[in-house]
Specification:
Chains A, B: Pathway: Bacterial outer membrane biogenesis; LPS O-antigen biosynthesis. Chains A, B: Belongs to the NAD(P)-dependent epimerase/dehydratase family. The structure is a homodimer. Chain A has twelve helices and 15 strands. Chain A is of the alpha/beta class. Chain A has a domain of about 230 residues: NAD(P)-binding Rossmann-like Domain (Rossmann fold). Chain A has a seven-stranded parallel beta sheet, with helices on both faces. In chain A, β1, α2 and β2 form a beta-alpha-beta unit. The longest helix of chain A is centred in the middle third of the chain and has 24 residues. Chain A is globular. The interface between A and B is medium-sized, with 27 and 27 residues.
C-alpha cells in the first residue's frame, strides 16, 4: 500500500486548515478547546450553543478571533445542527445535562443527552463530517461502593446506592457512546469517545457538583474561615485540568484512532482532605478544616473506596497523557478567580 | 398504629374489584397477565397497545371477556395514556422495543423505552394510579464475559463485547427503573420493578432473539432435521415461563412492597445443548444436534460463562417464586404450537 493510500485510510483529521464545530461550545471545555484549535491553525471554529447553560463569559477570551463563529442553536432541533455543521471536518460533542441539572429536570436531561446526541451524529453524517469526538464521562463506571481500585475502560457500570439522577446521567453517557459505535457501524462515521473525569480550571462554571467544591473551599479559606470536609475526608476525587482536556480533544481529532473509548483523567486522584489542604496552602493560610457530616438531600456523588481512573489507554489510542499536576492547575484556577475576569464572569 | 392505618400505609393494590391497565398489553406477557387479573376478580383490565408489535392473535383468548377493554394508543402520545389510565388503580408497563428492534430502529427504540416510560409514569401520577409494575430485564446486568455466576440485584452492568443495540436496550431498562425511583421520590408513586428473564410460553411471539430459538429448534426436529446448536452448546440461558411471570405481575400489585427491583427468572438456567435435547425429547425424536459456528452479522446475546439469575429477592419482596419447570413449560408451548391457535397466530 502506498503512503498516499495509508493516509487516506486513516481517521486522522489534522487541525490546521480544517473547520470544526463544538456543540455545547460556550463552556469550560468548549472555550478551552476552541482556543486550542484556533492556535493550531483551524480555518474556522464554530461554537454552537443555546446559552441555557453556556455563557458569554466563558468565551470572552476568544470572541474577537475572526476565525471563531458563534451560532445560537439547540441540539433538540436537527435543522439547527444540519446548518451549523456545513463544511465541518470535525465535530466535538459536549452539550449535555450533568447530574445536578438531570436531578432538576430529568425530562430535559434525557432529551439533550440522548436525542441531542442522535441529532448531532445525524447532522455529522449528513454533512460528511470526517470525525466526531464525543465527550463521555467516568460516570459510565457509575457510583457507590462498587467503584474502587483502578477504573479501566472495561470496568462495568455500578449503580447500587446512587441517586436516580446520577444513574440517569451515567446511563445517558453509555447510550451516547453506543450511538457513536452505531453510526460508525452503519455509516462509517469515525469517532473517538473521551471519558472525561471531573474537569476544573480557569473559567470554571458553577454547575458541576464536584468541581464546585474547590471554589467553595477557596472562598471560605480566603475569608479566614475553616474549610469544610464531608465525612472523614478520605473520599477520592479524580480531577483533570481543562487545558489537558482541550489538548486531548485536539489529539483525538488528529490521531488515526477511531471506534474507541478511552479515559482522560488527571495525573492522579486526590482525597477530599488532600484537596482542601492544597487549596488552603495556595491561599497562604494555615487553617485546619472542619469535618462535617453529610448534608441530607444534597446530591453528592460518592464512591465507596479509593479509586483511580486509569488513563494509559488514552496514550495508546491518541498519544495523550495529562501534564498539569493538581497543585499547578489549582494555582491557575485560583489566579483566575482572583483576576478581574474571574470575579466578573 | 391501628390496623386501619397500617392498611392505608401499605402499597398493596388488591386485584379483586380494582381496575388495571397493561401498557403494551397485546403481547405474550400482557395477555397472560390480563387473563390472570380477570380471573382474580379485577373489575376491568385495559389493554393499551398500538399494535405495531402487539397482535390481535395474542389476545384472542380473552377478547370476549366483558371486563376487558382494548385501547389503541401510543406511548409516545401522553394524551392517549392520560385518557386510558382514568380510574385505574394499577398500571403494568410492558411496552418496549427489545434488542432486535432496537438494532433495526434505535431512534424509535430510545423513544419508546425512555419517553414512553416517562409518559406512562406521568399519566399514572396525573390519574392517581396507586401502583406501577415496571417490566425491566436481566439486560440491566448486561452482556459479555463479565456476566457470570449468580446475577443478583446488585450486580453491575457489563457491556464490553456486546453489540450496540444490546447495550442500548439494557441502558434503557436501567433508565426506566430510575424513572420509577424518581417518580416515587418526587410524587410518592409506588412501584415494583420486575427484572424479567427471557420469557417463553404459549402465544410466544417471534421477535425475541433467545425465545425464538426454542421454536426454530422445534420446527426443525418435527421435520426430522437435526437441530442446530451454536458453538459448543455450553452457553447459558435462563428462561422464565410466561404463566409464572403473569403471577409475578399480579403479586407485585398485591404485595406491600414498593420502591424495589427484583429478578423474576425460572427455576434454573439451562445450557443451549440441554434446551435442544429437551425440545427433541418432547418431539419424541432421537436426533443428535448439529454443532455450528456463530452466524456473522446476526445479533446474538452471548455471555461468557455459566450464570444463574437469582430470584430469591422476589420471594422476599413479593412472595413469588417460579413454579413451572422448563420441561413442563416447553411441553405447554409445544402443545400450543401444534394446536390450531398456535398455527394460525
Amino acid at each position: 500500500m502506498s503512503k498516499r493510500e495509508c493516509k487516506r485510510m486513516s481517521a486522522a483529521v489534522p487541525v490546521a486548515g480544517n473547520k470544526f464545530i463544538i456543540v455545547g461550545g460556550a463552556s469550560l471545555v468548549g472555550s478551552a478547546t476552541a482556543a486550542g484549535l484556533l492556535d493550531a491553525g483551524a480555518s474556522e471554529v464554530v461554537l454552537f450553543d443555546n446559552f441555557s447553560m453556556g455563557s458569554e463569559g466563558a468565551i470572552a477570551h476568544i470572541r474577537d478571533n475572526p476565525r471563531l463563529k458563534l451560532v445560537r442553536g439547540d441540539v433538540m432541533r436537527l435543522p439547527d445542527l444540519l446548518r451549523a455543521m456545513e463544511g465541518c471536518q470535525g465535530a466535538l460533542l459536549l452539550a449535555a445535562y450533568m447530574t445536578l441539572n438531570m436531578d432538576r429536570d430529568p425530562w430535559g436531561g434525557l432529551d439533550v443527552n440522548i436525542r441531542g446526541v442522535q441529532n448531532a451524529l445525524e447532522a455529522a453524517r449528513a454533512n460528511g463530517v470526517k470525525k466526531v469526538v464525543f465527550a463521555s464521562s467516568n460516570a459510565v463506571y457509575g457510583y457507590g461502593p462498587g467503584v474502587k481500585g483502578d477504573l479501566v475502560e472495561t470496568t462495568p457500570f455500578h449503580s447500587v446506592g446512587a441517586p436516580p439522577a446520577a444513574i440517569l446521567y451515567g446511563a445517558t453517557k453509555i447510550i451516547g457512546e453506543q450511538l457513536c459505535r452505531d453510526y460508525k457501524r452503519r455509516f462509517g462515521l469515525d469517532y473517538v469517545v473521551l471519558r472525561y473525569s471531573t474537569v476544573y480550571g480557569e473559567r470554571q462554571h458553577y454547575r458541576a457538583a464536584n468541581a464546585l467544591y474547590i471554589i467553595e473551599t477557596w472562598d471560605k479559606v480566603k475569608k479566614g474561615e475553616r474549610p469544610q470536609v464531608y465525612g472523614d475526608g478520605s473520599e477520592t476525587k479524580h480531577f483533570v485540568y481543562v487545558g489537558d482536556l482541550a489538548r486531548a480533544n485536539r489529539m483525538a481529532f488528529e490521531a488515526d484512532a477511531t471506534d474507541v473509548a478511552v479515559n482522560t483523567s488527571g495525573p492522579k486522584p486526590v482525597t477530599t482532605l488532600e484537596l482542601v489542604r492544597m487549596v488552603t496552602r495556595l491561599a497562604g493560610k494555615d487553617i485546619e478544616p472542619e469535618f462535617v457530616g453529610d448534608t441530607p438531600g444534597k446530591v453528592r456523588l460518592t464512591s465507596g473506596g479509593a479509586f483511580r481512573i486509569a488513563h494509559e489507554e488514552a496514550f495508546n489510542a491518541i498519544g495523550w497523557k495529562p501534564e498539569v499536576q493538581m497543585e499547578e492547575g489549582l494555582r491557575r484556577l485560583m489566579a483566575w478567580i482572583e483576576s478581574n475576569e474571574g470575579r466578573t464572569t
